Amino acid sequence: MTTHAFAGLGLFLTGAAFSQVLAFGIAAWREGRHRRRIMDTLGPPAPDPSDHNSLPL
Fold it and tell me: Is this entry keyworded Transmembrane helix (predicted)?
């Protein structure tokens, strides 16, 4: 009985870990897609005016 309980617990924890990895992967993919959609709509961000390297000499 103990072997079956440990095997069941192991399968449950493995499935839970896989589900977490899958959920985080889907969330990262959706966030990346959302950012790309914003970049396509608005274009690249404006240059930072406080950047001193962009001043003419």
Answer: yes
